[in-house]
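Please check this today:
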Amino acid sequence: MADPKGFLNHGREVAETRPVAERVKDWNEVYVPGSLLPIISKQAGRCMDCGIPFCHNGCPLGNLIPEWNDYAYREDWAAASERLHATNNFPEFTGRLCPAPCESACVLGINQPPVTIKNVEVSIIDKAWETGDVAPQIPERLSGKTVAVIGSGPAGLAAAQQLTRAGHTVAVYERADRVGGLLRYGIPEFKMEKRHINRRIEQMRAEGTRFRTGVEVGRDIKATDLKKRYDAIVIAAGATTARDLPVPGRELKGVYQAMEYLPLANKVQEGDYVVPPISAEGKHVVVIGGGDTGADCVGTAHRQGAASVTQLEIMPRPNDERHPVDQPWPTFPMLYKVTSAHEEGGERVYSVSTTHFEGDEDGNVQWLHLTEVEFIDGKLTPKPGTERKIPAQLVTLAMGFTGTDRENGLVEQFGLDLDARGNIARDADFQTNVPGVFVAGDAGRGQSLIVWAIAEGRSAARGVDRYLTGASDLPAPIRPTDRALAV
């Protein structure tokens, strides 16, 4: 155990953020560099090393949280890094981007603020990179087997790294011009600077993983040709089909999917553009969707100099605190969350639904018409007399994703079966109905969290390894049927 009285003597302290007026003028991460290390030992010491650590259940990766909390408390950073990497390939990603279901399941959280698990995690990995404790793990021998991984998001990268370390020759195919998937072009720079992806990719290259960017399987190369070339294939293409809003005026200029808008801002930071082709500068911006992607659009619009930012959510405003009956510990509760983007300004409107868009004579969106909604007999129903319009010169749709891309032909060319929800079906080993073709991440699970994506990649890698060699020592933290701990 770290500090037996740590949870009694110390309150919860989280990472310090830079002043709003400063950070909205740049694209750097919002946290004060180095602000965690002076406090993280005490925060790690709040961990009670429970007899039954429910944080393990909250995290699909099965992270050994009490163990690396103990090492962090003692400032044994090398040992902490080893324990952290034992279950997680990319803790610098999850430590910045994961909503931390482990903290919702923390036993201390029953009657106190939970341990700052996410902050401890990111402190350990940042220290490990600083001290050189993150090194390539080159396999001692090669198996002679080849594997193609389609998609370079967290699931694809995790599967590729595990299989490379198992001795297989792995090539990752990415349709974008850079590696990283949504980590690269969906997550804004202020949430995670892309240098974290770059140095992890260099580690993977040093281990032997190969990357093929700008190649879309199904269009640039036929899936059937890829299957002939490789002994096994892992499909980790994500669930990139965005949910649309079929209302009058949807065709107006200025109404975009979030994933049409966000990547362009990231490409500016990569040096591809001086000014993004779609910008919020001087415009009244409306973001439809109250989730993390919507918050990313809000923060991006602030940095581009929007005249105003309004975020709409069709559901009611969540509670500030966990409801003991509806969302009991240790489930992951839906709570009112103020992200760094929301701290920077803008208005959040709940229980409203868009009825239509109104444009000018040139076909540019100018107004968004909405109505308040309420639950009647279990259905969201418009409230009469609540219709109004708000200015909207740029609208982003951030309403989630409905499944993997079907337009590029990948699913049809492989001849893959889909489940009832439109995801690629797989068996207990993450193998599809086509022998040698596996699926990991959102393409098989549906839209989910980054920790689930990494866990899927690790588990699918075990299935591939066993398919290729007859047995496997690789870990499999989850089954395809496992779901988050929820009511």
